[in-house]
Every structure is written in C-alpha cells, then in structure tokens.
Amino acid sequence: MLIEIESLKPEPLHVHHVYATGEINFTHDDAVLGEPVTADFVLRHKNLDLFVDGTVETVIRFRCSRCNKEFSRPFSARFDLSYLPQPKWTGKDSEVELKYEDMDIAYHDGVAFDVDLMVLEQIELAMPMKFVCREDCKGLCYKCGADLNEGACLCKNEETDSRLSVLLEFRNRKTEK
Ligand SMILES: [Zn+2]
Ligand SMILES: [Zn+2]
After folding, report:
1. Selection from 82, 74, 85 nearest residue 111 by Cα
2. 140 C-alpha to center of ligand 2: Å?
C-alpha cells in the first residue's frame, strides 16, 4: 500500500489495514508470521514531513531454540516515526538530524509513503534474535535428545561424572608439568 503524499489532507489520516498471510515479505530462520498482519496508525504531516504513530499486530509461529518445538505467540510492535523527504547532500547533514529530536527518522522519496515497507521494518525491528518458548525452557539433552521439560533423562548422572572426569584429567595434566 502506497499513500501519495500530495493527496494528504490537513487532518490526520487514520489507517487500519489488514494484510493477508504472505503479503508481508518477512523472512526469518526460526519464525514465520502465522496470521494476517494488522496495521493501525495515524499519519500526520507538516508539509512534506510525515509523522506516523501506531501499532502492527500479528501472531508469530516460531521454533524454540532450546527444545526445538513449534509455538505460536501474539506479536505486536509500537512505533512513533518521522519520515522526512530524502535530504539532498549539502555537506551539513546535522541540520536534518537535529530537526526532530528523540524520534526515529526515516526518509521517503517525496512522492509516496510506502506503508508495506514500514510495516515490514517494524516487524523486523521488534523481532527477537532468538526464540525461546519460555524463559526457563530446559531444552533437550545433548546426549539422548530427550525434552528435559518433561523430566530428567537417564543420562543425567553420567553427564555429571564425565564433566568431573574431564576436570580431574585437566588437573592431573597441570600437576604433571
Ligand atoms: Zn523450549
Ligand atoms: Zn539424556
């Protein structure tokens, strides 16, 4: 969806747009957008400076990086952004940066505001690098692959033993020198 900047009225523009699954070109190794993405925002402008304030909501499906199971979780991102016309390089770029302090600034081409791109960028920004199903997910046993959230596996004692033996071996080697 593109909004023509010339067509903007003086009043704020309220936008509610629902993207069908797959319409937002989001790619991630461990997650997919699992449901339609809803964008809700208000677009204000002062001449060619645009101010966008709103939310993006969807559901994400992801694979837990510890237990490797699939989960779904509601996802939302809030944003409060300024889109300014792409500045022409004058050699003093600090003017633009200081114009609106404490705001995230991006640029538009002066013709149209690309809503899809903004939505995609906001999703990407709010997406965590790694997903865990819950903070205390115990993950899988690295030996037998058992899901340790469902209880301890039989390798447990052995594991402690082998760690201890490595430590002892290390200590012995040190004293030999
Ligand atoms: Zn997990
Ligand atoms: Zn095990």
Report:
1. 85
2. 8
